[in-house]
């Protein structure tokens, strides 16, 4: 660790709101302004667009006031379902419009989303401490664990106060 990163370890980090927002807008606008849709792109893009939008909206509605750690709903399967939904929605838009420029703009949007999520995790660790760390250990970052078990679902993460 460098001296500068050590001094910031206990400090909240910027969540890259402006560059992240600009990257999301650039990807969406590039896709919309340079469409070249085909039947295939509609068949694949529309379900991704709708599904991603639904996941994003459900996830964001669960966060609410941001004063509590949300570990149920889609947050029991991945730590960042709103970002997964948003990127799925953007990917669906890019595929639906079959836009080269939209696809090109998707890469920085995805990289900035990853960076933003990592910074958000740092801030959540500062706010919730051991409770967030327990959640982080049990729930994957953005891709759910698929298990074939006969005993039902994996249930809620066990992040009770100890």
The biggest beta sheet is recorded as: none
Could you tell me the number of beta strands? 0
Order of helices and strands: HHHHHH
Overall structural class, as computed from helix and strand content, comes to mainly alpha
Runs in which pLDDT lies below 50 for 5 or more consecutive residues are 1-7
Shape: globular
> How much beta, percentage-wise?
under 5%
Question: How confident overall, as mean pLDDT?
Answer: 83
- What is Rg? 18 Å
Give the helix level as a range of percent: 55-70%
Number of alpha- plus pi-helical segments: 6
Q: For the terminal residues, how far apart are their CA atoms?
A: 30 Å
How many structural domains can be distinguished in the coordinates? 1
Describe this structure in words.
This protein has one domain. Helix content is 64%, strand content 0%. The protein is built from 6 helices and no strands. The longest helix has 29 residues, at 100-128.
